[in-house]
Amino acid sequence: MGAVIALTNQKGGVGKTTLAVNQAACLPDLRKNTDRRDLLIDTDIQANATFLISKETFGYRDTIGALFQETILESGRHLVHGTERENLFIVPSSPLMAAEEQRIPFRERRGERLSLFLKEVGDEFDIVLIDCPPALNIFVLNSFFAADSILVPMPPEELAVQGFEQLMGQIAAVRAVNPDLAFLGVVINMFTERILVQSEIRSFLEEQFGDRVLGLIHRSIILQEASASRTTVADYAPNSRAYEEYRRLAQRVASEYGLM
Ligand SMILES: Nc1ncnc2c1ncn2[C@@H]1O[C@H](COP(=O)(O)OP(=O)(O)OP(=O)(O)O)[C@@H](O)[C@H]1O
Ligand SMILES: [Mg+2]
After folding, report:
1. Cβ atoms of 190 and 245 closer than 8 Å
2. Pocket lined around ligand 1, Cβ cut-off 6 Å
3. By CB atoms within 10 Å of each CB, which of 41, 167, 195, 232 scores lowest?
4. Do residues 141 and 130 touch, judged by C-beta distance below 8 A?
């Protein structure tokens, strides 16, 4: 199986989904002329990643929620949908999953459904990115069980630093579920150079995490504009610094797995 990376941070609005869709959208550009395929899995009932990467509307049975039905699906292959980007595929989410979520606690092997699904289709993809919700719910636990590493976007803010200990505790707890789960690193997101305190926190994060700071994404209006246009920077502004930053990050992540 290729790389399975959960993009996670229990704090909301830190840029998990923006990272997931933009990193995913850069992947096909990185290794042109190869037949490699990548997959984005949306585990958030907000379905923001699905909305940004696909123009289709999905019913509940098309989504990751279908993996959590009463019986374990014989095959989840039909949940892999194409996107407008060649070689990029998605397992979508939908707000319709909210109603089903309450029933999941009664399902057998509920913590392993995503992992079982990836055992079936994972070999077909080089990089699998899992966009997690800002929670520690059953979908996130499934993600931690199925992933081989976690990548944590984090704004350079005091509260993010306060969350540092919490983050380390979370990783320890996660390893109780999946001892092989690696901490791939953090991505400093929404960085503004001229704000002194942000530069200080950036230095602090670099001291704490060393070479596990895998990337830095500046705060950029282009990312909000791309989202408002329901697209990614790869399509919206391929000449922007934001695109270059996500591309560099995607490259770094791929090279961490020896895929570049
Ligand atoms: N580098 C950036 N510069 C400017 N805006 C950004 C940046 N990264 C993310 N945003 C914006 O911040 C908002 C929150 O981002 P996003 O939805 O990716 O966060 P999230 O962590 O996935 O949120 P949630 O926890 O709700 O899932 C969005 O409006 C997004 O466009
Ligand atoms: Mg999100």
Report:
1. no
2. 12-18, 44, 46, 48, 133-134, 189-190, 217, 219-220, 223-224, 227
3. 195
4. no
Residues in the chain: 260
Around ion ligand 2, residues with a beta carbon closer than 5 Å are 16-17
Q: Which residue in 114, 131, 113, 107 sits closest to 18, CA to CA? A: 131
Contact 81/62 with Cβ under 8 angstroms? yes
Q: Among 195, 232, 54, which residue's Cα sits nearest to residue 63?
A: 54
User: How far is CA 196 from each of CA 90, 138, 208, rounded to the nearest angstrom?
Assistant: 39, 39, 19
Six-digit token string for 120: 């079936």
Task: Count other C-beta atoms under 10 Å from residue 75's C-beta.
Answer: 9
> Does residue 260 have a pLDDT over 90?
no
Ligand 1 atom nearest to CA at 189: 1
Instruction: Identify the CA nearest to 253 among candidates 150, 154, 123, 144.
Output: 150
Q: From the CA of 158, how far away is ligand 2's center (Å)?
A: 21
